[in-house]
Specification:
By secondary structure, this protein is of the alpha/beta class. It is built from 11 helices and 18 strands. Helices cover 26% and strands 26% of the residues.
């Protein structure tokens, strides 16, 4: 048996309890977690903004060591370090055939499976977003693990599974930031901090961080922000003032709220680009009028998992990390135990801190 954080029902608090985890079957891998990041998507699962079958073990950003493998698994072996991939591509659907693996229609099919049972009553448990990283150990499909990059501690590598891939991909794949361009990043959480670092790596000339919390300024500047704006009703005007009245070339929204998406769009120059990373609820309606869409000529684009292909992007990110260009530890503001996850959720709601990291 292993300890895990179980979501018994949408809207219910997490329960830290023991679960019965089976040995891996054909095509499966058992992993002992080294660390797991607490992502806003996990919070969205608890409150129903995103839905998966429950009861479920949450957690989708993690890394660890292979304990055992099932029949047919050859790309990893017991003792190997791995990064969990919560959205594996099937390779056969229409988006995959176009090379858009981040839009794979079957990526979350495994979330409906029963992968373990609660020890106290034998209740079936689902693996959250496929990988159930909020547990001491997990069993996942073989395509949900990627070899961990050499030279990077597994506790740090856990962040590669979501925050870093998403922030890096938002800049390099979705917004396609070019050297010398100006960038505004809305939301200085784990993904926002990764986005700031990615913008710096891309050679952005000015990087403006925006957040509701004045206390995050030092954190944002250490990640690469050249200016910091405390969010208000005049945020777009403040950003235009900082850019000679023009607005930024690129805005990346990492919050998922209608007002923030609209403000990010208004903060870009004529012909500017806005990439939306944040996951909002169906009640968050963003409106535009037809004339302003024509006049401003701006682009608004969604971004899933950073529009990344983890198998391709992880080695690139590893090079940046080993060269000192990307600082994984700069994303983490809290290192916690499994029972610290509820408090990490509360901090997220309150807009405090960057990434909380569960260290096992």
């Amino acid at each position: 048996m292993v300890r895990a954080a179980v979501l018994p029902a949408v809207g219910s608090p997490l329960e830290i309890t023991e679960i019965d985890l089976p040995e891996p079957g054909p095509g499966q891998v058992r992993v002992r977690l080294a660390a797991a990041g607490v992502c806003h998507s996990d919070l969205s699962l608890t409150n129903g903004t995103m839905r998966v079958p429950v009861p479920a073990v949450l957690g989708h950003e993690g890394a660890g060591t292979v304990v055992s493998v099932g029949e047919g698994v050859t790309h990893v072996a017991p003792g190997a370090g791995v990064v969990l991939n919560w959205a594996p591509s099937c390779g056969g659907c229409h988006p995959c055939s176009l090379g858009e693996v981040w839009l794979c229609v079957n990526a979350l099919a495994g979330a409906a499976d029963v992968y373990a049972r609660r020890a106290s009553d034998g209740a079936d448990l689902h693996p959250g977003l496929n990988v159930a990283a909020f547990a001491e150990e997990t069993v996942v499909a073989g395509n949900c693990v990627l070899p961990a990059p050499d030279g990077i501690p597994l506790t740090d590598a856990a962040l590669l599974g979501c925050a870093v891939l998403t922030g890096y991909g938002a800049v390099h794949h979705s917004a396609k930031v070019r050297e010398g361009e100006t960038v505004a990043v809305f939301g200085v959480g784990g993904v926002g901090l990764a986005t700031l670092q990615a913008a710096r790596i891309a050679g952005a000339s000015r990087i403006i961080a925006v957040d509701v919390s004045p206390e995050k300024e030092e954190l944002a500047r250490s990640a690469g922000a050249t200016e910091y704006v405390v969010a208000s009703e005049k945020t777009a005007k403040d950003i235009r003032k900082l850019t000679g009245g023009q607005g930024v070339d690129v805005a990346v929204e990492c919050v998922g709220r209608a007002v923030t998406i609209r403000t990010a769009w208004e903060s870009t120059r004529r012909g500017g680009r806005t990439t939306v990373v944040g996951i909002g609820g169906k009640d968050q309606q963003v409106t535009f009028n037809a004339l302003e869409i024509f006049h401003w000529g701006r682009t608004l684009a969604g971004c899933v998992y950073g529009n990344s292909d983890p198998a391709v992007d992880l080695p690139v990110l590893a090079d940046h990390i080993r060269a000192g260009r990307f600082d994984l530890s700069g994303l983490v503001t809290d290192r916690i135990a499994l029972d610290g996850i509820p408090a990490a959720f509360e901090n997220m709601v309150a807009g405090k801190g960057g990434r909380a990291l569960v260290v096992f």
